[in-house]
Amino acid sequence: MLPNIAIIGRPNVGKSTLFNRLVGKKLALVDDRPGVTRDRREGAANLLGLEFNAIDTAGYEDEDAKSLPGRMRKQTEMAVAGAELAIFVIDGRAGLTPLDEEIARWLRSAKTPVILLVNKAEGNAAQSGILESYALGFGDPIPFSAEHGDGMADLFQAIQPYVEGFKVAAADEPTDERAPLKMAIVGRPNAGKSTLINKMLGEDRLITGPEAGITRDSITVDWSWHDNALTEEDLLDGIEPDRRVRLIDTAGMRKRAKVNDKLEKLSVADAKRSIDFAEVVVLLLDATKGLEAQDLRIADQTIQEGRCLVIAINKWDVAEGPSKLFNGIRAALDDGLAQVRDVPLITISAFTGKGIDQLLKAAFNSRRVWSQRVSTGKLNRWFEDAITDNPPPAPGGKRIKLRYITQAKTRPPSFVIFGTRVDDLPESYRRYLINGIRRELGFGGVPVRLIIRAPKNPYHDKE
């Protein structure tokens, strides 16, 4: 979950230009004419590392509620009511207008916190507008230029407390195990992806056949899996035996050098986007062909995107030398995916249905691990023991001090360690910490992010 930050103001003050800059792409139409934006538009924003959901709103106008501007205003009011923060944008060159003052009165009566941004503040023409803006009662304004990007650091400092405060508040919210599992089935052509989904659904929902490359678009199908192995604790937690799954069938992904057809290129790109959308990615192998380099490339991409990975060996009912094949694939995975150990490896038959329940259990369990948060006490006890058992090195005779650790986010689990001289910390010690997190804190089999930072204050703990 990300905090919502709504961008509001009267028409043509630069709200959509600011929105486009925050989301890093031109999602919202921009024109000199006022009133271009009508509906709310949302986008994932990243401001110097701060992640939040930006909401572009229609220009706020004082019109009859039944008119189009009035209905647009209602949408803006709803956006502000559902936001953790509102950025009130005014035009520095035009100065304060009666409509700006009307919007300010409404915002003061709302419960949503507000920061004031004076746009078009480049040059001397906006100085009087900046001074006038103090009269709105929202504290120090932020001089800004949405067109040129001036003032980004000041906007970062103003937004940071609300974004980080939201993360702290949301940290203790449990992941809803009842939410549909978003599961993408990926692999090389003709591995049996569509056949597997058809077997799960109990119907020929997707076209299958001996020809490779039948599936072109990524197809999403909602389905309910009946879990016969739920424990009493699961039932008490509200998990229903019928567990919802959103299945995503994808086009076969061949080695890039072999893809020449434009349509196949588009299909592969669509499959890669499906990995971004999924929570769990099932990489389907063909038991008659074993593990190939392209399979490892797909697996590595999944891990790089921070998604859970489950590997299923299909056509197990016709595999030759199954024990040797399984051990060989396991060893190759441990060697080729050293950054994530213990990825679940399941044997299945999409034709007979054998192993499908085990596959889904592994997928739901991986999502649970991927979504879990470690308590602060447990995390710091592990960290202190890890540092005591194996202290950081002292390159050049100067000690590297690692002060404390925090879990920044889940999905994927991400941790931040703060310390001094961290630029000198060797990669081997970083791997030691990641392996400890996996082994001691229960994150085996899912991607783990570890960020090591020095304090922002350059005089902090200076020796």
Automatic annotation (TrEMBL):
GO function terms (MF aspect): GTP binding
Positions of GTP 1 binding: 9-16, 56-60, 119-122
EngA-type G domain sequence ranges: 3-167, 181-371
Keywords: GTP-binding, Nucleotide-binding, Repeat, Ribosome biogenesis
Taxon lineage: Bacteria, Pseudomonadati, Pseudomonadota, Alphaproteobacteria, Sphingomonadales
Name of the featured protein: GTPase Der
UniProt xrefs under InterPro entries: G_ENGA, GTP-bd, GTPase_Der, KH_dom-like, KH_dom-like_a/b, P-loop_NTPase, Small_GTP-bd
Known role: GTPase that plays an essential role in the late steps of ribosome biogenesis.
Gene3D superfamilies the record matches: 3.30.300.20, P-loop containing nucleotide triphosphate hydrolases (3.40.50.300)
UniProt similarity note: Belongs to the TRAFAC class TrmE-Era-EngA-EngB-Septin-like GTPase superfamily. EngA (Der) GTPase family.
GO biological process, one term: ribosome biogenesis
